[in-house]
Amino acid sequence: MREISIGEAARRSGIKVTTIRFYEERGLLPAPPRSDSGRRIYDTATVERLGFIRHARDLGFRLEDIADLLALQGQPGASCAPADSLARRHLSAVRERIAALRALETELERMVSGCDHTDTAHCRVIETLADHARCIADHPTGLTGELDTAGAGKAD
Amino acid sequence: MREISIGEAARRSGIKVTTIRFYEERGLLPAPPRSDSGRRIYDTATVERLGFIRHARDLGFRLEDIADLLALQGQPGASCAPADSLARRHLSAVRERIAALRALETELERMVSGCDHTDTAHCRVIETLADHARCIADHPTGLTGELDTAGAGKAD
DNA sequence: CCTACTTTCTACAGCGACTGTAGAAGCAAG
DNA sequence: CTTGCTTCTACAGTCGCTGTAGAAAGTAGG
């Protein structure tokens, strides 16, 4: 089985068939050779490349950054500084995200624990939402989804 | 200044003009009366509604859920159980997200701390990405961006 | 060989929550 | 009157896919 179909590549890499074609379109994978009837033919190297991509996606890297990392991987001997700084930047983005989510967690906890469950007129959840002043110092307003993925991998 | 323009409403609420129009289209705001020349005319109640929306968005609620919360707010006397359970569900989603991001943080830390910064052939970052087996037990594969917002509020 | 089923192909629309663009019109001040 | 700001509508783009439609090709059983 030296010639690998797209479906087989999907099974081996854990990336869906449609997603593989999407990655090709986005330049993460080279256009593969085709069979006489026009079907994509992959090899083990491509499957490994897909594994790389999947892992990087699981870690929340953006496709654009993954393309850069793949290019670096293909240049043995080149400095790994770009890969390193990319990973570091990503790490600090993840940390910021965690901090923001923790602040959210705190305020949501206060909201749901403070509600006496009678009716909407006295609902702490709704009151709190209506009156930002009650917690304006507690949760962040200023960082928008710059890191929205993490732990991807629905995979087939 | 009883009649509030969309720009003024944006300034007061911290929500961009374009986003206000977008919220109207999505049914979070009623279609406001218009001036002779067709411009939207708001009142303080709408500005407060915008504040509610903004706060809920800052907390990461989805627009669909915010619409539900707004409907509940408008029905004093109704049970707040739906609002409560919505907030609780959201809270547990936030917690899951934090846990996933912490796992990511751990692996990213290992990646960047283990790199000796020589060249790509020995780069720990790239090696780790290429070989998922090194950490397959450490980070989650299975939960995809079901909670991707948090701490929004770029706001004008 | 025929039929049924699966896989693959292309091309395009949709998700969520906006943001940005284009082009036109209204409005206020100098 | 001109300049410059605001507002209007309508639509495309962001990100990382997912889902759809319709067609062609491959595979298995009778």
UniProtKB/TrEMBL annotation, chains A, B:
Keywords: DNA-binding, Repressor, Transcription, Transcription regulation. SMART domains: HTH_MERR. The keyword Phosphoprotein does not apply. InterPro entries: DNA-bd_dom_put_sf, MerR-type_HTH_dom, MerR_fam. It holds the Pfam family MerR_1. One of its GO terms (molecular function) is DNA binding. The keyword RNA-binding does not apply. Residues 3-72 form the HTH merR-type domain. This is MerR family transcriptional regulator. It comes from Pararhodobacter marinus. The lineage of its organism: Bacteria, Pseudomonadati, Pseudomonadota, Alphaproteobacteria, Rhodobacterales.
